[in-house]
Design brief:
The protein is mostly helical and 119 residues long. It has a domain of 30 residues. It contains 2 helices and no strands. The longest helix has 67 residues. The chain starts with a helix and ends in a 23-residue tail after the last helix.
Length: 119
């Protein structure tokens, strides 16, 4: 009984396949439609693969740029901290060198100055 059912199913599938083949054969230029469909599907597959590859490449470049930016940001922060430290130590270094803070404002008037020592 089991063998009878599988052979009936196989015969039914064969009949359906034969009907599909007969239908395709009865149409005008059936091979052309099949070729166009296959080419379209292949082109779609290739385009999808190319887009995915480009997306992965862009993602990799983006992550590399983010790492580079974080390194540069850290370098800027380190340099800013060093500059702040040097600015904070500047008055002490000036005092150690014997410099004194300015007591009043000094201005130089160049209105009466003539080039070459002329009066």
């Amino acid at each position: 009984m089991q063998g009878g059912k599988s052979s009936e199913q196989g015969a039914g599938a064969k009949r359906r396949f034969d009907r599909i083949i007969a239908w395709v054969g009865s149409r005008r230029a059936p091979a052309m439609h099949v070729v166009v469909a296959v080419v379209f599907l292949a082109a779609t597959l290739v385009a999808a693969l190319l887009l995915r590859t480009q997306m992965v490449q862009n993602s990799f470049e983006s992550s590399n740029l983010e790492v580079s930016i974080s390194h540069l940001t850290q370098d800027v922060q380190d340099d800013q901290a060093k500059l702040n430290q040097l600015q904070a130590s500047l008055p002490q270094k000036a005092t150690d060198m014997g410099m004194v803070p300015q007591q009043g404002s000094v201005s130089i008037d160049l209105n009466g100055y003539k080039k070459g020592g002329q009066q």
